[in-house]
Structures are given as structure tokens and as C-alpha cells.
Amino acid sequence: MALFILRRLGVMVLTALCLTFIVFALTNLEPNLEKLAKNQANSRMTDEQVISWLDARGYNDPMLVKYGRWLGVVPHFTREEGGEVVFSRCANPGTSLEDAGSYCGILQGSWGWSTVFQNDVLEILAVRGNATAWLMLFVMMVMVPGALVLGVLAGMREGSKLDRSLSTISIGTTATPEYVSGVLFIAVFASATFGPNWFKGTATSAIDDITFANFTLPVLTIALYGMGYIARMTRASMTEVMTAQYIRTARLKGVSFPQIVLKHALRNALIAPFTVIMLQFPWLLNGVVIVETLFNYKGFGWTLVQAAGNNDIDLLLGVSIISVVVVLVTQLISDIGYVFLNPRIRIA
Amino acid sequence: MTKLADHAGPILEIDALSISFFTRLREIPAVMDFSVTVQPGEAVGLVGESGCGKSTVALGVMQDLGKNGAVVGGSIKFKGRDLGQMSEEELRDIRGNEIAMIYQEPMASLNPAMRIGKQLMEVPILHDGASEAEAYDMALQVVTDVKLPDPKRMLDSYPHQLSGGQQQRIVIAMALMSKPALLILDEPTTALDVTVEAGIVELVKDLGKKYGTSMLFISHNLGLVLETCDRVCVMYSGEAVEDGAIGEVFDNMRHPYTQALFRSIPLPGADKNSRPLVAIPGNFPLPHERPPGCNFGPRCDYFEAGRCDSGVIPMRDAGPGHHSRCVKFDEIDWNAPIAAPAETSKREIGAPVLKVENLKKYYQVAANALFGGGAEKVVKANETLDFEARESETLAIVGESGCGKSTLAKVLMGLETATDGTITMGNADIQSTPIEGRSTKQVADIQMVFQNPFDTLNPSMTVGRQIIRALEVFDYGKSDADRRERMLHLLDLVKLPRAFADRMPRQLSGGQKQRVGIARAFAGDAKIVVADEPVSALDVSVQAAVTDLLMEIQRDQKTTLLFISHDLSIVRYLSDRVMVMYLGHVVELGTTDQVFAPPYHPYTEALLSAVPIADTSVQKKHIVLEGDIPSAMNPPSGCPFQTRCRWKDRVPGGLCEKDVPPVRHLDGGHQVKCHLSDADLAAMEPVIEVGEAPPAAAAQAGVTSM
Lengths: 348, 706
What we know:
The complex is a heterodimer of chains A (348) and B (706).
Chain A: H1 2-27, H2 30-40, H3 47-56, H4 63-71, E1 78-81, E2 84-88, E3 113-114, E4 119-120, H5 121-156, H6 161-175, H7 178-189, H8 212-242, H9 245-252, H10 257-294, H11 300-309, H12 313-341
Antiparallel strand pairs in A: 1-2, 3-4
Helix pairs in contact in A: 1-12, 2-3, 5-6, 5-8, 5-10, 5-11, 6-8, 7-8, 7-10, 8-10, 9-10, 10-11, 10-12, 11-12
Chain B: E1 12-22, E2 27-38, E3 43-47, H1 54-61, E4 69-78, E5 81-82, H2 88-94, E6 99-102, H3 106-109, H4 116-127, H5 132-145, H6 151-155, H7 164-176, E7 182-186, H8 194-211, E8 214-219, H9 222-228, E9 231-236, E10 239-245, H10 246-251, H11 256-264, E11 316-317, E12 323-324, E13 352-366, E14 376-390, E15 394-398, H12 405-413, E16 420-425, E17 428-429, H13 440-445, E18 446-449, H14 463-473, H15 480-493, H16 510-521, E19 528-532, H17 540-557, E20 560-565, H18 568-574, E21 577-582, E22 585-591, H19 592-596, H20 602-610, E23 618-620, H21 655-658, E24 663-665, E25 671-673, H22 678-682, E26 688-690, H23 695-700
Parallel strand pairs in B: 3-8, 3-9, 6-7, 7-8, 15-20, 15-21, 18-19, 19-20
Antiparallel strand pairs in B: 1-2, 1-4, 4-5, 9-10, 10-12, 11-12, 13-14, 13-16, 16-17, 21-22, 22-25, 23-26, 24-25
Domain ABC transporter (chain B): 14-262, 354-608
Keywords (chain B): ATP-binding, Cell membrane, Membrane, Nucleotide-binding, Transport
Membrane topology (chain B): Peripheral membrane protein
């Protein structure tokens, strides 16, 4: 088992390197850099000025060298004039050139400087990530049990009225994207003029203090969308299990229906949807972008939007690292959990 | 929960039962006017081909017909109480407690994610209100009763950690946990190997005696029913056509279907040249296309228009406790010999076309294929195979699952390459040429007929197109018209109507599909055809027809047939020479007569004894092998068969455990791989003795008595 995890970790690091390189290359494309230069310095710069500005900051070096610097395995770009260092990429605003080391990449814990928020990227991500982690936690707490209950109830008697109505509900929720359901929720539950004014239409205050009023709508919006999907998967798996011969064995052994569902069918029916549930984690990041923007909840997704909108390369890269890590870690958990659910799979 | 009060009468009384399934289109009657009674301690067999409704009867007794099925007439009484009138709760108390069931596929019938012990303990906890500890003790007791080794470890295992035979013993144990009054066995051994089957059958019989359980034994295997049951009921297309005491039905049958069934199975005495099998003509009617009157009418030799195809035909008495659903049974001369089928001359066996020398096939298996790592293991699938096959010869390759017969087929076909040794076909060595590297001629020369006709045809291509595709691959003919012409000839060859060329595989029955498979194999005038269990997936009545077809084509085309099978009856019937394999070794090789008569290799002896024979006149020696086939990953030292051999103590000095026996050449090219001394081999007695045949059976065998 330990060996298996170690091997998987190795593969994960490799995957992470590849993925971050792709994001790095895309964000460091020439038009993007030109935009950066004009944004940072002067929007009326001539082409020559842009090139010299980029040259002076090391942006025109080969891609691999830049990637190495960003990772922290190659010394960072410095500019010397008359034998004296006049510019170091390692020196963030506020630190002197002397204090700045020569390596300042991801590995050194220096994730760069956000041009939008004028702050250290790592610090921003810590704060924003924490906010989103809370959101995700609540979403998972609502979505997973809800979806499993829906799926199991629908799947235990295929074709029954219960199955039909629950299936309709789950298809309905999956077919409603967050930007539709979110707007609808706000209109129905948070409008002062129409309907019950139970919840708040904005989650800004939830950053400091999560309450039922300010957090319900964003959580529901994300959870409902994913819930239908997982419920459908669970239902499909459950209907299949319920027609299996060992269920007939149990039935003809005299086991009552609720016992059949709980003791014989459930564990077998959860094997397939478990992977899907774990896949939902990274996928939630998507929903988070929309919902955080919609409800003005300043979390990870909102940061991503800000970074992308303002061409904040360092912040974008930081966000992508977090996303890549989330994806890979959830996949690892999913593989390990699968082994525990399914006794037929053995890891030496 | 307590059991129902004892009942003086029969345990199970099924009276005029009719069961239908309801689809959107129509009502499909699955069982019609079916009656049977099971007395206490009695075993009743239910025999018939697939689709005849025998499993539906079993589920009907269990009152578990699903959403679409319903009892539409008659009654099922258990211990005098009508099961149809019981509430869901009362039924639950009876299921698993008073009536237990054993299923066809043990692997599928056990919950894969639940430990065996828990699955067993569930029964007493549910029905007797036993505590966990009591239930565990009971489970331990029953697992010991079904003769499983290491019961404690068994209870702690998951189903996939057990072999098929062990799983079936667990299913039996589960059924016996509550000491039921009635046990329903639905094809309990169909998925198992013959030697394992013999063990299970013995177990069921012993336990039946020990607990006094009544049994309803459902099977398509007449031999098995003869070995296990007191009475038998033959079903055809949803109806019981004949029932009676086992000896009565087997020796004095009074229904043409029963007779036709017996004539289509290879019993000892059948011979492909002098007394070929008689296939039942036509096909099994679909449930909604049953003919008026007698369902068997259109396929019956004694059919008489006006009498057999009108009105409802009731069961009538045909002797004490013997009934038949035939209007003419008292007019038919049951002792008449079989209308002499065209006798065919034995064909000349020609020169060797395939020579296999010292062939070895080893597989390297990582100990853990999924995640890598661990020591590599070697699976020795084939170990020093030496044989040759001649023109027009049928060489049967016999053995149980895991003996390496399918690996041999793969190596011959070029799907795998040999590890060592040579295969010579024609003038070329082909052992290390994979199929992509073989010339078109070589590919066309050695072809295969597969076991499962249902999966080996492309479901979205017409039959004709699939055969033409094979012709294209073999570079046959110059134009599409040529190939189409040839394809139609091939359909004629396998006796399918030419109109089938435009049909899809799903429109064909199993036997017809297998004919298409045969046509495809012979498309390039194959010299050698490897038939891998070609009839084992087919119904008894169809098996005979497909077997005869293969024989006929072989006679015409002088093909060499390598007939891979585990069914010794059919092997004895059609093969010229037999090669018996065990764990990758050829343990015995000789002509059919040599192999089927002593001296035997001890494994052959056990195999012969294990095969159930549907003939009351046959006396068999009873040899049941202990345990399972060892894994090829971890074979026993010395002789591969030493772990299960009953002759082992005759060989001095533990030779069997030390050395792999050498190949011994006995008279007439008979080869045996065994350490036994010549004297011991000579002292072996025949396993099967065809005793004095009762008159009717003698007529069966084509001998005119009186």
C-alpha cells in the first residue's frame, strides 16, 4: 500500500509539472506579455519600448529558462548596470535588492507578486483558498448525502413512481446551470419585493461570519447542480446492483427489502459513483468561479476571475497550481477509497 | 421464527400451474398446466432445454417472478398451504427457512462485497433469531458439513477468493443453514468442471439423506438427473410432457420428445459411422409462436395431422405414476429400432498435417499486474506437448478448465507465440509466427470455431457480409460476385437457407449462429480446424445437429479437426484419437478405444467416472477427486496430478512427488504419463460397464431385441 501511494505521488509530481508548464507557457505568450508591459508601464508604448521593457525584466528569455526560474531551480533574472545589481525579480516591492536571494520560485515558497492586489500571491491564496474551502465543505455536506439518498431511493425500485419523480428532479437540477439557478434563487428567496425574503442575495459577509442567511443560497446553487449528476450515477449503479443475482439470493433467503438495500446493495452500489463523487471536487472549482462572482463571495474562484481579467500572471499561475494539486489529490483519494469499498481489488 | 407445522402429505404440490410474463406487446405464457408433487425426502428432476420454463417453475415456487411475471392459473401448495395466498411477510419466513435455493452461477449468487461468514450467518439470525455467536457456530458447522477445508478461514473470506467449486459449496451451505424442507437446485453444476461437479453431486445426495430434505433438481443434463433423482419430469416449451419414476421414464419413455432427446445425446454405444446421433429436426418454438395442439408436433416423427395439431392435449396415465402428454403414446411402437440412418464409411486417415514437438508456452505474470512490483511468476500453461494430427482425423483434446487446452489453441492459431518447441504445418514452422506474420494461405489453412456463438459474430453485420469478409481476408476470388457465390455455397454447406445471407445475427438461434461460425472457419478451405468447445453452449437437441454437420464437412473436405472439449461423451462419439491434458501436461494420448478402456491414466479414470451418463444400464465406478485443480501459477512438485491421485500410494519412494513422470509408450501408440508399474496399470478395471440392457434401452441402442 505504501509503495503504491509512493508511486502514485511520483506520477502526481510529474503530472503537476506538465500541467503547470502548459499553463505557464500559455500565460507567457508574447501577446500576453505585451499586454502586461503596456498595463504595467505605459499603455502608449511603442513596440521597441515594449521589447526593451520586457528585456529589462527577463521576460524575453527562453520559455524553459523562465519556467525553471519560476519553479526555483534556475537563478532568477537580475539586471546589472556597472557591476551593480539594479533589478532583481526576486525583490518584491518593499524588499531591498540586497535581501532578495537569487532563487525565488515555487520551491522557495515565493509564488510571485500579484499586480492586481499588490500583495504576495501565497498570502492571497491562503486567505481566498480558506474562504472557498468553507464553501466547498458545506457544498459537499449538502450534495453528497443528498445525492446518494436520492440515487439509492430512485434506484432500488427501477421504474416505480418514486424512481420516476426522483429522476425527474435530478435531471432537472443537473440541467440547470449555476448562473440560472443562482439568479432564480436570488430572485425568489432574496428579493425584497417578491417572495419570502429568507436569505441574503450576497455572501460578502460570509467571509467573516458564516450564517444560515448569507451562506445558504451559494451552497445550494452549487450543490444542486452536482447533486443531480451524482444521483443519476448512483441510481444507474443501484438499479444494476438490484438486478444482480446475489440480490435475488438475499431475497430468496428471506431478507426484507430495507435490509436488502442497506446490507446487500448499498456497498456494491457505491463502488461506481465513488469515483464520480471524487471527480466532483475539482469540478466544483468551476461552479465556485460562477457562484462566487454571482454572490460576491471573495474566495478562490473570485480571485481567479480577477487574476484572469487583469492579466495577473503570477496569481494565475498560483491559482493553477492549487487547482492541479486539488485534482491530483482527489484522484489519489478516489483510488485508495475504491480499494476499501471493493474487496476484489487488492494492492500489495 | 418457527417452521410451519408438519404436514402429512407431500411437501410440494404444484397443480395445473400456469405462469405468464406480460410485456407491452402481449402476454407470454412461460409455463402452462404444469403439475408435479414432491414427497418428503424425495428428489424430483425437472429436465428440459433452455427456454422450456423449468427455471420459471422454480421461481414460481419461490413466488419471485418479478414485476412482469404472474401466476395466471393453478396453485402451488407447500406443506398443504397455498403459497399464492400468503402475504409478503409469510413468504419471507418461508424463503431461506423452509424452501432454499441453489443457483447456477455461484460467483454471481454471492454478494461480492460481503464476507462469506456474514452471508451465512444472516440466515439463522433472520429466521431463528439466533445471536451472532450462535449463528457463527452454526455457520462453522455447516461449512464443515459441506467438506470445505479450513472452515474458519472460509468464513472470513470474500467470495472472489474461492474457486468455483468452493463457492458452490458455500451456496449449498447457505441453503442448508436453516435445514429447509425443500431444496430447489437450479442447474447447480452447469458452470463447474466435471470432476468438481461429481463432488458437488455426491455432496448434495449425502446431505439430502442426512437432513431428509426433499429436492427439486432442475437440469438440462439427463445423466445428472439419473444420478440424483427418484422421479423426473420432462418439460418442453412450457409444458410437462412426461413424468414418472426415473427408471420408467429412462427405459420405457412414453413421449416422442423424451425419445428424441435420448437419441440426440451421445451415450456409450453411439458411433459416428455406424449409429450416428439423431438430431431433433427444426427449432424450439418461441413462446408466442407455439403451434396449436402438441407443442412438439412440428418436430415429431409420429406427427399426425388432425390429431396432434388440434385441441388441448392433456396429460394421460401411461402406467403407475407415469404420465405422458401425447395423444398417440399407446399406438407408437416404442421398441421399434431407430430408422436406420445412412451408415457412412469410415474415412481414410491420411498423412500428418500438423506436428507439434516439445511445445511449451509459459506466461510471465507480474505478481501484481495492476500496480507492478513484486516477484514475477511463471505460469506454465503448456508443458512439452508432443503430438501430431493427420488428414481427416479428429483429435480430441480433453481436460478441465485451466488445463491449457485453450492456450494450445491460441498458440496454434498464432494468437500467442510458443516459448519453446516447434509446430510444423505443411512444410513451415509456425510456432513463433504470430498471426499477423503468417501468409494468407497459412491463416486460411488453420481456422477456429469458437465456443460461444453468441459473442463471436459481429452483431451489426449481416451473416453473408461476415462470411464474405472472411473470404476477402483469405484473398478468395476475383470479384465481389465470385465471393458472393462462394458465400452462398458455404451457407449450403452448413445447411442454412440462402436467405440467411441477409439476416442479422440476432435473428438467428444459437445453433444457426454456430453454423455461421463453421461456415466462416471453412471459408478458405481450412486444412485444420480447431473447434474450441463448439457445442457446449448449445442445447442438447441442437448439439447433435451441429456435431453431425462438423463430421459431414470433415468427411467431404478431409479436414483435420482438433476438437477441444470437456465433454467426454461427445469426445467418445466423434473422435479418432484423444489427448487428455492436466495442468499443461498431456497425461494420456491414444486412440479413442485405448483412452476409454483400461489401462487409464489415473486422471482419465477419474474424469470418465465423473461424467454423468443418461443410461440406466451403465454401471460406473464411483471415483470422486478431492479438492480443486491446483493453480498453474503454483503447480505441485513432481507429477501434476499427484495431489488428487488415488493411486499415488502404489508408487514406492514418493516418486510422484519428486519427478514428473516420463511418457510411457504402451501398445499401439498409446501414451501415458504415469509412474505406476505395468502390473498396476494392467490391473485397472474399466470405469464404465454397459450392463445388460433392459429391452427398451436395447432398442435405444439400435439392437433389435425379441
